Amino acid sequence: MAILYWFESIRTPALDTFFSLITHLGEETFFLVLALLIFWCVDKRQGYYLMAVGFGGTILNQFLKLAFRIPRPWVRDPGFTIVEAARAEATGYSFPSGHTQTAVGVYGGVARSRGGWPRYAALALAVLIPISRLYLGVHTLWDVGVAAVSSLLLLLVLWPLFQKYWSASRQPYGIFLALLVLAAAYTAYVSFWPFPADIDPANYASGVKNAYTLLGASAGVLAVCWLDDRILRFDTRAPLLGQVLKLVLGAALALGVKEGLKIALAAAMDGHPAAHAIRYFLVVLAVGGIWPATFPFFAKIGKR
């Protein structure tokens, strides 16, 4: 806790605002937007790489949270205070840090696969977001450190594997099949493991929801790989106006499918968490296997 008390001692309103803004860049929404931007508009191979790092890191992160069930710093030490603006989003168990897992994995993946200013901007975020979690007081150094190291290991392991697939002009079926197996194993873990009676109900419910979400999303990416390989073979290139419309309209489609199916599937399946798996499978299928079929149209917009 010593490092957290040091950050507490240097807090100012300006730094509170700065790190509160920085920490939002490690949330799921920004990961999804960045992944879609790269997958649709920059290089779909690198998009697959980021998705693999993101999904793999999240599966590991969620497993460790339920396996260790470590409370937040202010719960462990009632004398410690946090930046109140961060409290609402700091739910669930503390170890390891989900924001750090995403930041180091996704932004580190961008830095690994891109050059120029995107690399330096991504590296800066990969460092600043973990620091923001310490400054805001919502994670310990141990929470942040383990998440960062595990993400770095994923980056180092997956990059050469993707390189082999790319050099052979093949889709990374094996990688996403392995992620699907891991997601299925995590789903079985949350469903059948004899957790102690004192487990926090809200944290457990969140773990179950995330397990089925990851299961559906992983299956969706595997299906998208097959569709792209056998049918779509889409090209990410388009004029600037076409790229902007592609991203904005595609993101609206993703949001519409995600929210539109939420109530319907929950009602149809009587609240069973498997509804999350079906919903996210269909979301991934829509954004990766259906929307890219429109890209030839966007490639013509803005051409002179």
What's the number of structural domains? Answer: 2
The largest pleated sheet is described as: none
Shape, per Cα inertia axes: globular
Quickly give the structural class.
mainly alpha
Rg, alpha carbons: 20 Å
Q: Find the count of extended strands (DSSP E, 2+ residues).
A: 0
Oligomeric category: single chain
Total helical segments: 13
Helix content percent band: over 70%
Give the CA-CA distance, first to last residue: 60 Å
| Overall pLDDT | 90
Beta-strand portion reads under 5%
The H/E string reads HHHHHHHHHHHHH
Give start-end ranges of low-pLDDT stretches: none
Q: Can you tell me about this structure?
A:
The chain has 304 residues and is mostly helical. It folds into two domains: 1-155, no CATH class; 171-304, no CATH class. The protein has 13 helices and no strands. Helix 4 packs antiparallel against helix 6, helix 4 (44-68) packs parallel to helix 9 (173-192) and helix 10 (201-232) runs parallel beside helix 12. The model has no long low-confidence stretch (mean pLDDT 90).
From the structure above, extract its key features.
single chain, 304 residues, mainly alpha, 2 domains, 76% helix, globular
Fold topology:
Blueprint (H helix, E strand, L loop, with lengths): L1 H8 L3 H12 L3 H15 L1 H25 L4 H4 L21 H16 L2 H21 L4 H27 L5 H20 L8 H32 L7 H29 L5 H17 L4 H4 L6
Helix pairs in contact: 2-7, 3-4, 3-11, 4-6, 4-8, 4-9, 4-10, 6-7, 6-8, 7-8, 9-10, 10-12, 11-12
In short:
The protein has 304 residues and is mainly alpha-helical. The chain has 13 helices and no strands.
